[in-house]
UniProtKB/TrEMBL annotation:
Name of this chain's protein: NAD(P)-dependent dehydrogenase, short-chain alcohol dehydrogenase family
Family matches, as InterPro entries: NAD(P)-bd_dom_sf, SDR_fam
SUPFAM superfamilies for this protein: NAD(P)-binding Rossmann-fold domains
Any Pfam family hit: adh_short_C2
One annotated GO molecular function: oxidoreductase activity
Transmembrane region(s): none
Gene3D superfamilies in the record: NAD(P)-binding Rossmann-like Domain
Superkingdom, natural source: Bacteria
Family: Belongs to the short-chain dehydrogenases/reductases (SDR) family.
Amino acid sequence: MQRFSGKSVIITGAGSGLGRAAALQVAKEEGKLTLVDLNEAGLKETAEEIRQVAPNAEVLNVTANVANESEVENYVAEAVKRFGRIDGFFNNAGIEGKQNPTEDYGSDEFSKVVSINLNGVFYGLKHVLKVMKEQGSGSIVNTASVGGIRGVGNQSGYAASKHGVVGLTRNSGVEYGQYGVQINAIAPGAIMTPMVEGSLKQIDPENWEEVGKGFVEPNPMKRFGKPEEVGHLVAFLLSGDAAFIKAAVIPIDGGQSYKY
């Protein structure tokens, strides 16, 4: 399938993890990519991996902090300048933050996590929706989390921000369906990405792989998900194949969230 032939797709958090996996899938299907991340080296690595699987792919790298609205406005403008339109947007950039009980959770840390995970998603929606509404078409996928549909413990900033992403998705999905724009969210569970690895190392730097075994215990499949499994779901939701899915929050967690 070449579902993205001739189409322009923006992916934030594209320097690693889920963003990179989605970028590779869209590139394989001939999409034109605007890759956004604060990590310039990570963007270059993603672009190099894309060249290996899709040598003719058109790729624009934009270094940006999604918590800064002017930088968000800029990456949207750069995508339009280069490709003329925005057909898909994986609004994905985020961080996990430090792990502490709520009473010990730092106020500055809370603000930092929310500014990236929630404000960054809002800014992306705000500026991409202007383009898509004018076009009369487009598809957006926001990255929430199982931590956005239930509690996770010791992650006040992360859980609050991801619950906020769910709210933004449902609200904007209702608002913009009439304009031909579909807006949905994914809610990943235990997916082995650099962010999740870092989280496990916070708990026990020396034995994080053992910690990981307990981390997936609530998952009926008893394993971590793979970034490419998420990438396939994102590509589907960004494509015309998902045209009748609106304002949905779709878990991809091996069944973990359904056990509660």
